[in-house]
Amino acid sequence: MNASAMTPPTTDEPAATRRPFRARGGLAFLGLAGMLTLAACGEGNDATTADPTGGQGAATAASSPDPLASATVRNAEGTEVGTAQFTEADQDAMRVSVEFSGLEPGYYGLHVHGNGVCEAESSAPDDPSETGAFLSAGGHLGGDDARHPDHAGDLPALLVMESGRAAMSFETDRLTAENLRDDNGSALMIHSGPDNYANIPERYAPEGPDEDTRSTGDAGSRLACGVIE
Question: 97: Cβ–Cβ under 8 A, 6 or more apart, which residues?
């Protein structure tokens, strides 16, 4: 009998044809796993991009204290030129934040005055015969026991840009909730000129600054006023 006829038939494929199939299956599985990993990484990146601060920005905004007081500042015609906010800061300080617009470029004296009344044409509280713009606000806050620039209400000069805008934020330990809101109240004042802080060189004034300079810093007339409340 023919030997080949006695060999039983088989349905198994030769090993040489099975190995390539298993290799292709492994590569396909690895490719799918890689795609899923990349997709997961992409989702993670999207989450990070959506909040790059890790939530710290929201927490900071939520923890910002509310202002203790604020003021809307208007000129003698009644036009609003800006606002101010007074907020408690660290180490017994007060943060003052101001924003103004519609002003001529340059430096302006900025002070807190000791009477919370802003009347365009008015008399000075201590001298009714003296009249003028916003004289109702009185002198600088803390003026009874101090001389310029050591009043509690003496603030940094305001710099107005070419656009007519000005903004600044600073801290001072001279202002408190108590002196801003005492029985007389208080007002924020923009003057028409820069404040010299009583810094008059001796060659110009051998005897030192005069009383007007020591009271006002020679900052000029009162340009705009806002009651602090």
Answer: 84, 85, 87, 168, 169
- 10-residue mean pLDDT series, the chain (229 residues): 47 45 46 49 49 50 78 98 96 96 98 97 92 96 79 96 98 95 97 89 86 82 98
Whether the Cβ atoms of residue 159 and residue 77 lie closer than 8 Å to each other: no
Q: Are 74 and 84 in contact (CB under 8 A)?
A: no
HSE (CB half, 13 Å, CA atoms) of 103?
A: 27
H-helix or E-strand containing 75? strand 69-75
d(CA 50, CA 119): 50
| Contacts of residue 23, Cβ cutoff 8 Å, sequence gap at least 6 | none
Q: What is d(CA 197, CA 149) in angstroms, rounded to the nearest whole number?
A: 5
pLDDT of residue 55: 53
Chain centroid to CA 206: 42
For residue 32, CA distances in Å to 24, 25, 45, 50 come to: 12, 11, 20, 27
Residue 92, φ and ψ in degrees, nearest 5 = 60, 35
Quick one: which H or E segment has residue 180?
helix 177-180
Sequence-distant (6+) residues with CB within 8 A of 224 are: 73, 74, 75, 76, 81, 82, 134, 189, 190
Distances (CA, A) of 131 to 41, 46, 105, 168: 73, 65, 28, 31
Question: Which residue has 């408690």 as its token pair?
Answer: 88
Contact of 219 with 192, CB cutoff 8 Å: yes
